[in-house]
Target: Pimeloyl-ACP methyl ester carboxylesterase
Amino acid sequence: MKNLIRSARNLSRNLVLAALGGALLLAGTTTAQATMGSQTKEKPTIVLLHGAFADGNSWSEVTGRLQKDGYQVVAPAVPLRGIASDTSYLSGVLATIPGPKVLVGHSYAGALVSELADTSGVKSLVYVAAFIPQAGETLGTLNSQFPGSELGSVTTTISYPGGLDLAVDPAGAGPVLAADVPARQAAVFVAAQRPIAASAFGEPVEETAPAALPKYAVIPTGDHAIAPAAERFMANRAGAKITEVQGASHLVAVSQPSTVTKVIEQAAR
Model:
């Protein structure tokens, strides 16, 4: 009889322990799944938009660092045909990217970032040595309001049936765009330049980026393409969190990729 009672007690205890172990295992699995889901949500896709005279390779050092840190990165080719035209194309690109997105614009692409800010899933904006225009403004006017831009001195024109493009003179563009980039690397950049429609700089911007959307601005103090004073003015007006990079050139994403990456990841978090 005693053996029977002892066996019953042992069976009951084992059943309780098994149930408790199962509950703990289930809780651990649920917690792990929740953590994984949270980590996934914390990793938006980073969309890097290059500026005039450039292509996606201008982001290569930043792209590699972001990918190493677990971010999905898209660096599409910006057509450089004008603000409205480029915005229309890029809105189609963004429509193919699911989930939350951080938009990053360099130089001219700052205008595109502002225009695309209302796109579904955009959680923050980053402006790197970039224009941050408001509705009705033109990039040409903004760049002429403050002294310091030398871009006009190295700009050449390409005329073709139906249009006029702007390019930069390979002989003089290096010191203006990439003073802190090794000369050989700067020469490669200029050799592969993609001209921009001249009308883009006189085209009024249609949208002001929403005030409530978090904004970050990287301002290279050695920028000779867009005057640093103009970048500060636009960034302060937009309520952006500013990171100044002392002595860096307009191609700050090339010369100081670690700093630019840190700002982008801050915006992503």
User: Anything to note?
Assistant: The chain has two domains: 1-39, 42-268.
